[in-house]
Amino acid sequence: MSSASRTCALHANHSAVAICCTCQIDICAACHHTNPLGYAICPGCKETLRAFEQTLFPWEQASFSRLPQTFFRTSANVLFKPFSFFTDLAFWTSFDKQKEGGFGRAIAFGLICTVFGMVITLFYQYLFVDDFLEIVRTTIQENDLPAEVNPDTLLTLLFLMIPLLGILAFLAHWFVLEMGLRLLGAQTKWSISGRVAAYSSAAYLAKILPPIGGYPIGYLVAIGFLIQLETTAIRVVYRLPAGKTFLVILLPFLITILVHQ
Q: Who contacts 171 (Cβ-Cβ below 8 Å, separation ≥6)?
């Protein structure tokens, strides 16, 4: 376009240098901004885009006081609108370089869900497995633990160890997912695969469902959710075909089953 023949819609005395790709108005250098795809936008459309971004992942952007509310909102979006959620994730992370770092909140989300799933699993085993304490006693004997370590003490220690085990399980899942993506040729970054692993961990919240008739309903539902979420995430974020997607999730899925037994 000719800067001599057109002027900025917001500054009449400034020559236009571009056209906003959203609202199509002429903008000068002072009004020139870009969207995540690199196209020119005006200040008004930039603010609209910023407000839109803040609705996508409130968990990562909310103030500390709103974290409980945004945690449940994010969990519901992941579990019940996975295609929409991970489509937004692909948009939010793939083009904006600022989103490659600063993903600690996302990792924290994954750790919370992972630890919760392990805690609730152990709790339900304690409540519903008739010989659970006997299993604990056998564990004491098989590992030659001191006699003063009684089943109640060991059970307490198991609960206290869960946060550490949860962290190790999540990090192993994340690492294997990243390596699988790289081996199969996906264009990935640790920040993106970390978010995929973290938000897919919302599946473990389904473990809140108690066993029915001896069947671990919550565990089975959680595994079903995990398969659905990671399959959707990999297909949407990385655009891998079904065969490669299956191979990517197979190994971390097997690790997850073993860890959360």
A: none
